[in-house]
Amino acid sequence: MQRTREEAINGLLPEQREALILERLRTHGRVLAAELAAELQTSEHTVRRHLRDLAGQGHCKRVYGGALVVSPADKPAAVRMHEAVDRKARLAAAAASIVRPKQIILLDAGSTNVAIAAALPENADLTVVTNSPEACARLLNRPGFDVILIGGRIARGAAGSLGATALLQIQQIRADLCFLGACALDPDEGVAAFDAEDAELKRAMVQASSQIAIALTSEKLMTAAPFAVAPTSAVDYLFVEADVPRARLASFEAVCDNVMAVRP
Length: 264
Prior knowledge:
Blueprint: H1 5-10, H2 14-28, E1 30-32, H3 33-40, H4 44-56, E2 60-63, E3 66-70, H5 77-80, H6 85-96, E4 104-107, H7 111-119, E5 126-130, H8 133-139, E6 145-149, E7 153-155, E8 160-162, H9 164-171, E9 175-179, E10 184-186, E11 190-193, H10 196-207, E12 209-215, E13 223-224, E14 227-230, E15 237-241, H11 246-253, E16 258-262
Parallel strand pairs: 3-13, 4-5, 4-9, 5-6, 9-12, 12-15, 15-16
Antiparallel strand pairs: 1-3, 2-3, 7-8, 10-11, 11-14
Helix pairs in contact: 2-4, 3-4, 6-7, 7-8, 9-10
């Protein structure tokens, strides 16, 4: 006789229950302990224990009421530069469309932001301040750009300058628009980074800019990283891919002023 779903759930071994929770995390990004407890017909204490174990294995980050899957962006910059190149180029073209002539643009390091550097309009009399040598290289010898490269120690993982020198220089800037790099983004948990110094520099960029824009690929949405940068409500423009589910998109629209789904 075929087992009912309820019987199947009741018969789960602890490791099977944990595997199911991990599957939910990877599918939805965020899970809530109360909902999982009801679905799995077990206690919230048991679910929280599973989430704690999964967090200890590096699969997720505990947040209030549940957990978030860890962002997949914790890779060397040299690897990220060659991933999803076409997708990042589409996001970059959409992001560059909000730039206006004569603006001072603060451009954070990151593979998508390097694509934005390449997409910025020429002959617009733009001043671009960046901590990314790669982004700087995309702008040199193009007409209409005054490029300022932020100095300091070049962090291999971030492919951009970090540390006290970079932080001091950023604090002396007053930018019209910042294209901020984001390792992870969640409506409730905000923008996050994997490196403490990187997060500190990003916070300084937010403080130095009148408007904040973020363009990021779908796999970074509803994910976590260890170091907080800014609340999602601080983001004025969010550019995401068109394959983001409607419910997930709505959760960002509730806290961001302008959320734009970029179609292929």
